[in-house]
Write a structure and sequence with these properties.
This protein has helices at residues 2-7, 19-26, 30-44, 88-100, 119-133, 147-156, 172-175, 181-193, 210-221, 251-264, 281-289, 309-319, 327-335, and strands spanning 49-59, 105-110, 137-141, 160-162, 197-199, 202-204, 229-234, 269-272, 294-297, 322-323. By secondary structure, it is of the alpha/beta class. The chain binds S-adenosylmethionine, 6-(5-methyl-2-OXO-imidazolidin-4-yl)-hexanoic acid and iron/sulfur cluster.
């Protein structure tokens, strides 16, 4: 830790954190934790810059999995309207709207357990190509992928793949029974091997303990390479799901997760993800101070509401935040 604080070299990024160390960070008095995280943030990240990403559900509902938080699982009776795969035109026009609204990353989500080698996957590959050609960083979240499918996505121009661990290994079977933690880790490894940027985080507010939150952060921060982005979602309780009556998480719980993630994974983009709709600007400001530097914009996440464009624009103006340039642009700049 001290070497990391001294020189900020890449080599100081640690992936050997112990559970005890993480616990000690997570349990610090919250204001002290924020200050420490803010210092790490200042050292490793461009403070004041926030990555702006937009989501689109390209295939909605009817999912065979039983993730107890998710409105898209076929077995729960929610108000989500099932929709087959969108057309290429629908996706490109949504991506254009996102780009016009200042987004640099466009993430397409599908309510699939896993990718299958069929025509729908070929269509998704075309969507990836199309969005990539628009100069956006393309991200997908399509469920489990094997090595071969990850390579095809990479060839099509995929920049990042989102695959969340969601909770700790110990708590996993209380939340999802239709797949295992190892299934999740295997997909992350396949994505990494294909040379795609890894986006993986989780949800708080599922009824998990602090130990579960710490356990999930331990798994993420001890991967051979840290995920390039870690989304921290607050559960959006949806009517009809088993978790519909879960109490809302507090801002302090979000701040603790974000700050701990920032300290453990200094170079990672930490995303303040689901749950912003219920947070005030003051709450969100605390999360940015604690090291969050990425958000989803646009009035919908996948199926649930998100603050609208004007509200986020006003928040950026008020807090003096600027949208981050895309990593793709930066890479081109370095090459040219
Ligand atoms: N089916 C794919 C999968 O599970 O990986 C991709 C889509 S899935 C909806 C993507 C992520 O959304 C989940 O891993 C979970 O973290 C998040 N999510 C789903 N429902 C949520 C909810 N009600 N509140 C917060 N996050 C949620
Ligand atoms: C992530 O971690 N959060 C996003 C994105 N990755 C795919 C999804 C949040 C979904 C919230 C519930 C919904 O809108 O359906
Ligand atoms: Fe399906 Fe993904 Fe929802 Fe789980 S989180 S039910 S896999 S869409």
């Amino acid at each position: 830790m001290s070497t990391m604080m001294q020189n900020g070299e890449n080599t100081d990024i640690r992936n050997n954190w112990s559970l005890e160390e993480i616990k000690a960070i997570y349990n610090k008095p919250v204001l002290e934790l924020i200050v420490e995280a803010a210092n790490v943030h200042k050292q490793y990240q461009a403070t004041g810059e926030v990555q702006v990403c937009t989501l689109l559900s390209v295939k909605t509902g009817g999912c065979p999995e039983d993730c107890s938080y998710c409105p898209q699982a076929a077995r729960f009776h929610t108000d989500v309207e099932v929709h087959k795969l969108l057309s290429q035109e629908q996706v490109i026009s949504a991506a254009q709207r996102a780009k016009d609204g200042g987004s640099t990353r466009f993430c397409m989500g599908a309510a699939w357990r896993e990718v299958r080698d069929n025509r729908d996957f070929d269509k998704v590959l075309d969507m990836v190509k199309g969005v990539n050609e628009m100069g956006l960083e393309v991200c997908c979240t399509l469920g489990m992928v094997n090595e071969y499918q990850a390579e095809k996505l990479k060839e099509a121009g995929l920049y990042a793949y989102n695959h969340n661990l969601d909770t700790s290994e110990e708590n996993y079977s209380n939340i999802i029974t239709t797949r295992t933690y190892d299934d999740r880790l295997d997909t992350i490894e396949n994505v990494r091997k294909a040379g795609i940027s890894v986006c993986s985080g989780g949800i708080i507010g599922l009824g998990e303990t602090d130990e579960d939150r710490i356990g999930m952060l331990h798994t993420l921060s001890t991967l051979v390479q840290h995920p390039e982005s870690v989304p921290v979602n607050a559960l959006v309780p949806v009517k009809g799901t088993p978790l519909e009556n879960q109490p809302l998480v507090t801002v302090w719980e979000m701040v603790r997760m974000i700050a701990t993630a920032r300290i453990l994974m200094p170079k990672t983009m930490v995303r303040l993800s689901a749950g912003r709709e219920r947070m005030s600007v003051t709450d969100q400001a605390l999360c940015f101070l604690a090291g969050a530097n990425s958000i989803f914009t646009g009035e919908k996440l996948l199926t649930t509401p998100n603050p609208d464009f004007d509200a986020d624009k006003a928040m950026f103006d008020l807090l003096g935040l600027t949208p981050r340039k895309s990593f793709k642009e930066e890479a081109q700049h370095v090459c040219s």
